[in-house]
Please model this.
Amino acid sequence: YKGDDLPKGFLFFEVNDVNPLNALTFELEDGRLLWDVVCLFSGNINHHADRNAPFLSLNPQTQYWMDNNEAFIQPLRKRGIKVIMCVLGNHDQSGVAQLSDYGCQMFAKELATFCETYNIDGVCFDDEYSNSPDLSNPWFAPWSSAAASRLLYETKKAMPDKTVMVYYLGGINSRMPSVDGVEPGMFVDYAVADYGGTAAPMQGMTVKQCSGMSIELNRGSGDSSEGTARSKKEAGYGYYMFFALGHTNSLVSDFSDYRFQVSRCQSVARGLYDEELLMPEYYYKKNDATRYKL
Model:
């Protein structure tokens, strides 16, 4: 716990590449963890042919983390890290910004059941990679920010004690409309921007619920300077987002690349917390809960 006045570290994990337990290896000098929120990237919204309806689909690797979540997910939560599942389009007619009111209500209930079943802290919505829907199907509606906002609203309604967050892209942005007179700041807990950006607050939201910067570690995009991190902290931003920490192989075979990624995190840590981030001494191989020396 870093205190209410300091930004929280937010990490999107490419779950096909890296064991989520590696989040536990990033500690500040005083033992606090760098990451406060880990988002598993990604689950998908897909169209179920037999049901003729959208459903939450997990690829085999993502399902492995869920099936073995006592070993790979709950240790993060026991250290105070929130773990949430990203929901992303997947090249068919289902999408997070093209469900009808009915579709939003039903899919939101499925997401709430999923979070309860696997004991995770919520979901993140990312509007990408969806095709045009069949509008004769009562589950679907024309693509719009209004449809996306309705899904966010219904999801928060279905699981009020869980986190509902967004990645600004596609139909999801800072100009999301209200739903039934309720401003989006009342049903969206926080927002992160696309790579290199700063998230602007939605109606009813403050910068405390927004990421001051979004950094993509593999591509090298986004400003990871100490000065920018300090300025975003002083401006009141509540989160700092990183995407795609390492690859399973880079942790060992290409350690120099991993050290460069860590150095970017260290620079941000100095700006946000006035503390050094220690170089990780251990790592976790994919699908292995054993801690190995780097």
